[in-house]
Specification:
Layout: E1 4-8, H1 15-34, E2 37-44, E3 53-57, H2 65-77, E4 81-89, H3 119-133, E5 143-147, H4 150-159, E6 175-178, E7 186-190, H5 195-205, E8 212-221, E9 231-240, H6 258-270, E10 275-283, H7 292-302, E11 306-308, H8 311-320, E12 325-333, H9 343-371
Parallel strand pairs: 5-7, 5-8, 8-12, 9-10, 10-11
Antiparallel strand pairs: 1-4, 2-3, 2-4, 6-7, 8-11, 9-12
Helix pairs in contact: 1-2, 3-5, 4-9, 5-8, 6-9
């Protein structure tokens, strides 16, 4: 095997030649990793005024080849010079020195998304993803849904009976994958209840560079003029979950992806569903009602319209790792209005809501695919000093 692969577009390069070169670059990277080396990409962009050369290392490039192919193809068409080479020897996952390369305090969150993660982090996250979800990392699709209820899993499996399922029983966060060519399908992960699980799962899924993450859960309605079964489309979050406070200051505003919210809103209205748009209060305390005075004071100040235990966590990690995200919840109880979540009423609600809830999100994803075949716009989650890959100042 050669020590490197190199491609530079010329004025006569055809799309077919570019596609072939990108495929060969990906083949080289996969083989380098199989041979025990982290593959390295070097990209020279003559059009860039301040940052013409960008580089990064990878692990298991086969898993997210769809993403590498898409990004390298765009760069090659713009005239970028692409070089793939062998870098360092891979570090075994049971090597104590591995931890020296995983500390995110050393991570540059303004890096291009293509090069955001170090290869050691990618390697470990993909291994843990398989452990937690019971499915291979390469089974994950571009569009990822999170739920905290088995009922959504049941609906997903009924709708996609051939989906990939966990290979063993008893996994902590089972995943199900409706696979399509080029990873254009849907993955559903049952993350269970609570922000810790939400953080754990999104920490690892982030290395896959998905096109979207959507929280599909239930919530407590906090407004008088809400009915059980109404939907909540988050426009912002009150971060009372606390699990990411050390990583993302509370002073940083976290909002869902505007474009995803437009698609979700369009589908909600096409189905003539009752919904409200507003702030979701995410707590780590399942029994927040036991500290009502403090919790309700925060709820009133934030003007939140719903309360849950995962949405802000997913959204914050989406912002942190620059993954377009959104939240669509369904009101299952109204704890401040004499309608707590009681077993009998809850089961009746779940049966009436679960199919429509998932259908709305799946329809919104189809709209996104049609209008954004190259991935969701990410201008809202880029750093101010990180222009787009194709801009003259990038």
């Amino acid at each position: 095997m050669k020590d490197f692969f190199e491609y530079k577009k010329n004025s006569n390069s055809t799309d077919q030649e570019i596609n072939k070169a990108v495929s060969e670059a990906c083949d080289f990277m996969e083989q380098a990793y199989e041979d025990g080396y982290y593959p390295k990409l070097g990209i020279v962009r003559d059009w860039s005024e301040h940052n013409p050369e960008i580089t990064g290392e990878f692990a298991k490039p086969r898993v997210y080849r769809w993403y590498l192919t898409r990004e390298l193809r765009k760069l090659a068409k713009m005239g970028a010079h692409i070089k793939a080479s062998r870098s360092r020897k891979t570090i075994p996952l049971n090597e104590p020195l591995l931890l020296d390369y995983l500390d995110e305090e050393e991570m540059d969150f303004t890096m291009k998304k293509l090069f955001l993660f170090r290869p050691e982090r990618i390697d470990l996250s993909l291994d843990r993803l398989q452990h937690y979800t019971g499915t291979r990392a390469e089974d994950f699709q571009r569009y990822i849904l999170f739920t905290n209820y088995d009922m959504h899993v049941d609906v997903f499996r009924d709708k996609f009976p051939d989906c990939v399922k966990p290979s063993r029983e008893g996994v902590q966060m089972p995943a199900y994958h409706h696979k399509l060519d080029d990873n254009l399908g849907i993955s559903l992960v049952n993350i269970g209840v609570g922000p810790s699980n939400a953080k754990t799962c999104t920490d690892h899924i982030a290395v896959l560079r998905p096109d979207a993450m959507i929280m599909v859960g239930h919530c407590g309605g906090l407004r008088n003029h809400q009915d059980i079964g109404d939907f909540v489309l988050a426009s912002g979050y009150m971060r009372a979950d606390n699990v990411l406070d050390d990583d993302m200051p509370l002073s940083v505003p976290i909002i869902p992806n505007y474009t995803l919210n437009i698609f979700l809103k369009q589908v909600l209205e096409s189905y003539k569903m009752n919904y409200r748009i507003g702030t979701v209060y995410t707590t780590a305390n399942r029994n927040w009602e036991f500290s009502k005075r403090r919790s309700v004071s925060e709820i009133h100040i934030s003007r939140s319209i719903a309360i849950d235990m995962e949405s802000a966590t997913v959204a914050t990690n989406g912002f942190r790792y620059r993954i377009p995200n959104a939240t669509l919840l369904c009101v299952s109880d109204k704890p401040l209005h004499g309608k707590p979540k009681l077993s009998g009423a809850a089961q009746s609600f779940y049966q009436n809501s679960k199919e429509k809830h998932l259908e709305i999100v799946l329809d919104a994803i189809e709209l996104s695919k049609k209008q954004n075949p190259q991935g969701m716009p990410n201008s809202s989650i880029r750093a101010s000093n990180e222009p787009l890959m194709g801009g003259p100042h990038s």
